[in-house]
Amino acid sequence: MRSTEATTVASASAIERPRHALAAVVAVLPLSVYDPASGAAAGP
Predict the structure, then answer these.
(1) Residue 33 CB neighbours (<10 A)
(2) In 9-29, which positions are buried (b, 16+ CB within 10 angstroms) versus exposed (e)?
(3) How many CB atoms lie within 10 A of CB 34?
(4) What are the backbone dihedrals phi and psi of residue 38, each rounded to the nearest 5 degrees, phi first?
(5) pLDDT value of position 4
(6) What does the pLDDT look like over 1-44, one tens digit per residue?
(7) Cα–Cα dist 26/18, whole Å
(8) Cα 31 from Cα 2, distance rounded (Å)
(9) What pLDDT, on a 0 to 100 scale, did the predictor assign at position 8?
(10) Chain-centroid distance, C-alpha 37
(11) By the 8 A CB rule, do 35 and 41 touch?
């Protein structure tokens, strides 16, 4: 029973990690698109 719990926790954390990474990328994305030097969006 213990090994099943460990596997469940391991897979749950494996699912959580990419989600946190994705949230970090989404948070940084507007900063990389916005160019403070020109004061305007660098995108099209």
Answers:
(1) 10
(2) eeeeeeeeeeeeeeeeeeeee
(3) 13
(4) -90, -15
(5) 72
(6) 566 776 777 776 776 777 778 888 777 777 666 666 665 555 55
(7) 12
(8) 44
(9) 72
(10) 26
(11) yes
